[in-house]
Design brief:
alpha/beta, eight-stranded parallel sheet, 221 residues, 9 helices, binds pyridoxal-5'-phosphate
Amino acid sequence: MTEYRKVHDEVEAVSGGRAVLVAVSKLHPYDAVLEAYADGARIFGENRVQEIESKFPLPDQRPEGMEVYLIGQLQRNKVKKAVALVSRIESVDSMALIEKIEYEAGKIGKTIDVLLELNSSGEEQKAGFRSSDELFEAAGYIMSSCPHIRLRGVMTVGPLGYDSDKNRKAFAVTKDAFDRISSLSPDIDVLSMGMSADWKEALEAGSNEVRIGTAIFGERQ
Ligand SMILES: *Cc1c(COP(=O)(O)O)cnc(C)c1O
């Protein structure tokens, strides 16, 4: 049994039905994915291309409606596989990566959804564009030069550790960046923030997509 249904209902209630729940299944077996699927889960988040490849069937052989999003840092040599295996990359964090995604998606004639990741906490070790300005520039580049990328929004990972004030600040910074780029196109409508420990604060700050692993599937090995 997964806790998917319970978490889903809580997210529905707190967000007033506005937020999408991504079930983060990384490091849990495909059986756990299928159990959550049976409970109604359709979107699964994974952070490594290798794991998606070994765990999930190919996209056209997955159960009806099942989607996999890549939410972890993507190396350039994995872009080709990532573009083929997922419907959305949520962790786009450099111009070089954007160029590579456009190139690989173009080669297979696919248009792929992406989110731009913002490093909203300023933590050195964290991935993501360093500022709202950099993110805005990347958004403009995608809109003008990347016909195989559909920009859908912004993603962030809250600060390390649990600190309510720091979380709120990081989420507010991300919401501002989202508001800025969402004016560029009606397609840009996803603000992905909030994980097991901080999803309620993220929703309060305007998130409309939460990525929850531990609260659904339990601790990872
Ligand atoms: C692992 C992960 C999550 C889920 O984290 P939990 O604390 O298990 O809910 C969400 N987003 C990203 C980017 C992750 O890597």
